[in-house]
Specification:
GO terms for molecular function: snoRNA binding. The protein has 59 residues and is an alpha+beta fold. Helix content is 24%, strand content 14%. It has a domain at 1-38. The chain is elongated and about 50 Å long.
Length: 59
Amino acid sequence: MKSDIRVCSAWRNRHDRPVYTLGSTCPDCGEPAENSAPAPFDPDDRYGEYRRALKRRNR
């Protein structure tokens, strides 16, 4: 599921807390906004192969 909520890409430097928006730019400073959702998985997951095998086995 893709999130429509975005956060200012420069909030750590320009704001005292995250500024969330639905637009493509920050309403306070005009910097570009980026997706606020974390990545769905880690490509460097060392145990991902085992976790997926266990999930397949338990079906």
